């Protein structure tokens, strides 16, 4: 069984990122990211990705 210190060390090693839409902090391992971008952006789930994608379509006139 792991001691409290070992559990604290493991949780400190988890890298957190913010969802691009709702700014919720999520573990990097659970984040969704569209591929082939010049830079990475993260989403907590498909709902936020869809919201971001729809808003970027409007701002670019439908062109990505």
Write up this protein.
With 64 residues, the protein is of the alpha+beta class. It has one domain (13-60). Helix content is 38%, strand content 9%. It has two helices and two strands, in the order H-E-E-H. It has helices spanning 4-12, 46-60, and strands at residues 16-18, 25-27. The longest helix is centred in the C-terminal third of the chain and has 15 residues, at 46-60.
Describe the main β-sheet briefly: 2 strands, antiparallel
> How much helical structure, as a percent, in the residues?
25-40%
What integer value in Å does the Rg equal? 16 Å
Overall mean confidence score, pLDDT: 76
Strand order in the sheet with the most strands: 1-2
Low-pLDDT residue intervals, each spanning 5 or more residues: none
- Count of domains: 1
Query: DSSP strand (E) fraction?
Result: 5-15%
Q: Please, how many helices?
A: 2
| Run of helices and strands | HEEH
Instruction: Give the structural class.
Output: alpha+beta
Give a quick summary of the entry.
The protein is of the alpha+beta class and 64 residues long.
Question: What secondary-structure arrangement, pairings included, does this model have?
Answer:
Blueprint: H1 4-12, E1 16-18, E2 25-27, H2 46-60
Antiparallel strand pairs: 1-2
List keywords for this structure.
64 residues; alpha+beta; two-stranded antiparallel sheet; elongated
